Records
---
Amino acid sequence: MITKMNHVSIFVLNQDSAFEFYVNKLGFKVHTDASMGPGMRWLTVCPPEQPELEISLMAINEGMMFKQDAAEQMRALVSKGTFGFGVFECNDLLATYEELKAKGVEFTKEPTKEFYGFEALFKDDSGNWFSLGEKKQ
Amino acid sequence: MSGPVATVFPKIYLYRRVVQAKLFIDAHYHQSINLDAIADEAYFSKYHFIRLFKATYGNTPHQYLMAVRINNAQLLLKKGLPVTDVCYAIGFDSISSFSALFKRVTKHSPAAWQQTELKRTAEMKTAPLNFIPNCFAQQNGWT
């Protein structure tokens, strides 16, 4: 049986900028940063309290994964904010919201009490969006 | 203060003060930080400040400061800086208290931890494919 997810990918427009966003703004930890040459960088980060989940910040480069037209389409879709890649959790949403806003993170939904929980939405530097929820006590 | 968040959550000004104190610690962890001064700066009594900080972050300001110092020590050790330089660079005055705290948090001495990390970094350069799930490497054409 499947027991865990240990890698997940987020497609980003620029890995240097994504590093700055996920590490210096969100406070994630770098797990692996391995280069195999120009345009070939394996960069993974982990949420501070979840070192077993590597989030791969995948550059959308033309190559085997994306043909030229697919790469262009993918970049356009990511920039437009098409993709929501997941839900992050924090202990205190208002404090986390205030901190991330102070660091320049763009929120598309301010903290709101919904019937399913307390959540806000923010975007990464590429345009991918995430829900940010508060851990239920 | 303005905006819908402040309207819906009128006590958000308290969060802003606590967050500012946290960001101050993040930026000045390497200096001698007087937590009384931070409490004053945030317009709280020391007791009230510690209580709010702990309620928000799960740790007292002092515990949080120590955690930030150890995190930054790890970043500097990964860069290969000598343990003594790291100790002073993150705001500790004494090698023994730095080493003891580091060991308590990571279960390893700073020197041993550094050796392991430097070895891993070197391997990442010489054999990067050892760190990448093969399916991703193949899909990217890196194999």
Note: The radius of gyration of chain B is 20 Å.
---
Amino acid sequence: MLGYTLSRLAQAVMVVAGVLVTVFVILHLTGDPAAMLLPPGASEKDLAVVRHKYGLDRPLPVQLLRFFIGDAFTPPGREQSTVRLTGYGTGEIQSTLRRVRGAIFGDFGNSIRFTDQPAMPIVLQRFPYTVQLMVAAAAYSTVLSLVLGTVSAVRPYSLLDQGVRTFAILNQSIPNFWLALVLILIFAVHLGLLPSMGYGSWKDVILPAVTLGSQSLGRNTRLVRSSVLESLGQDYVRTARAKGLPERGVVAKHVLKNAMIPVVTVWGLDVGNLFGGAVITESIFGWPGTGRLIVESVTFRDFPTVASAVFFIALVFVIMNMLVDLSYMWLDPRVKLG
Amino acid sequence: MRSHANSYLQKLRSVNVSRRGFIKVLTRGAVAAATGPFFVSRSGRAATAKPLVIVYGVPRATVDPQNHLNTYDESPLGNIFENLIDMSNPIDPYKGWRPMLALSWKRVNEKTFQFKLREGVKFHNGEEFNAETVKFSIDRLLARVDPNFKPFSVTWHAYDPIDRAEPVDRYTVNIITKTPDPIVLNRFNGFGMRIVAPKYYSEHDTAFLQTHAVGTGAYRFVSWVKDGDLVLEANEQYWGGAPAFKNVIIRTAPEASTRVSALLSGEADVVIGVPAEQADSVNRSGRARVEHVHSNRLGFWRMYAHVPPTDNLKVREAINYAANIGELLTTVYNGLGERISTVVGKYHYGYEPGLAFYPYDPEKARGLLKESGLPLPVTVNFHYIQGRYTKDKDMGEGIISELNKLGPQYLKVVPHLYEAGRFYSLANYGKLDGITFASWGNWMFDADIDLSPNFHTKTEPTPDYPNNPALDRLIDEARQTVDDKKRRALYAQAQRLIWADSPAIFGMQVEDMYGVSNRVNWKPRADEMIWAREMTPRG
């Protein structure tokens, strides 16, 4: 048990480190943040100042090392320098680099878009908004999928079942961005019932949550349906019915409980899917969560913020998966590990 | 961090989905469905009590007016902070500047410029506005207040010619420049030249001031969530009279269709960047309309005159004769946007209106290519971008297809499409050749800022472009000429030279499209500033 937990932990650390290296390499391949900070026509000297200010003028391996362990080995004095500016004006500007503690301490340096503000706290500030959206979406998709899936399984191949299955497939196959626009058009523009954008009141969360939850609603409804259907044919159900339990009691007490195991497994994976979906959903509904932050930061080549956000999300995802894996032992003692 | 978590918890508690509320929504839904989508009653409170909602496409990164360099940061902050002067509105450089916190101004001598300031103006925190305040704001901008405050180098460039501000008396301040500077007044319209409250801005550190704001403007800062809402309330003591709308919410929706939806559902009052193809449906909605204006922003396509094949004048001319810009403006921009035949903006001091358009003449273009002495077909790279400005990609593709119409035996255009970040990192290093997209705004409304950075040989990052010493002399001379008439003549001459030298496919003043709710009276400004105090309730 302890050995398994430790090996899972080690794997998790490797995964997060791999994610970090990938993010670092991809971001550095796609463009120069210094150029994004200055308008076109900015002089090479000015670009040099900005690059120096954010440590972008160092060799890539050095940047990677600094990214992980910070300025622990940077000789003192290196972080202080004066650069002379040219262009259509002259002057001197003092550029001081903050000592960063490195990715392993969760310090990714200062954000480039939000000038001189540490990147990690910006991500953490935005996380509650995403959690709010994810919880709402998960609640919507879980409750509705349990109800629809069960109802559908109890009367297989009925008209109701056909309807539910069509609904589930539509939910799973309609792309988020399109569903979002259609929902906005119907509920905000035509009916005027719900806001098309914004955050803060409970009304604001409905459309984004329905959009974000649609994929997992579709998948989970079908999963619950097949799982319940399978359980309904089991011996213990026949026994329950034989002892005279009403059908509602049979389904609620015996079938659903046993049908839950595969559903719980999928919930763990849903966290990742919801994070991924949040990137699109938050952008469309103007929701100030982590997903939006990533999109805006990528556009700005804001390395530190993107790295912080991806690190944080990878961490949450890996921890969730680890908990799901470990919970098998607790949920079902028959599951053997190792 | 903790205080944020607490406020978040409080918010969660207040987000209380009551059963009654839910039933209310359901009932309203049923009623709405029964009565048809357009008969939903909307709350009829006083026209100005409902907050005015302005929706941008790009979120702001800071509320420090002196520590940014983006138009979308500057635009909303104009509600909270003010400059000494403002360009006339509607913008017209011939009508000149209008007074804001300064009442009048004059040149004292070649290096000294004097402002008389408005009296009795107070900052939102009660501090008094006076000559010392102006000195403080300029010192802060030039990084003389807080050693940790690092102005962006572009701001540094723009204001470096200013040596210092010297208060003469309580409401008079002299600006001393390092050299004779014809556009010292224009600099006071620039980004960063907002006047800030000295006590507040010296007591708090740079990081704090990125999320808190105290100015003299018509609205005071209430709150701001990054990538979320910037909330403002009316400054009842405003020197220009209290604004009509008492509460303003500035939000961001990156998706154009979300912005239009918010406008049509009555949640937004002003939205930026309405796509041309949605303008009709907005105008037909009965709830909102599209207001458009020729932007101060200039679009053109640079032809690098220092590398082959565009170092050949005949090739550059041929491309201008074949690009068919007039026709493309009609098809790509639905006839919006105004064609110009120079690289100085229409609203900028020194703009030369007397230059002819290059006519569309493919025969002449083919002839010029034959005369160029280069082996045919001439192969030229075309670098363009997507996703930064309205229809940037469509316009680029339009020009490519027009050029290709010359025939593969004459001209071969190799398209290179970039996402904006990648493009600017190459363009700013001078790593591109052939034909390259360019978009140029200009907060000083002066030809110097159009020509010096773009068309002077000493310009970085391409120091030998466009390689015309005669043009360099004109630009240098105009920059130091204080005499108005002489300066205009120099710029006219420079632009005639540029026209003949053809270092760019001459383009257009871009068109800005705003969606405006029918409850608001507002004419958009050409400088992309959206100021709520210029809006009034309609009807």
Note: The CA atoms of residues 300 and 507 of chain B lie 4 Å apart.
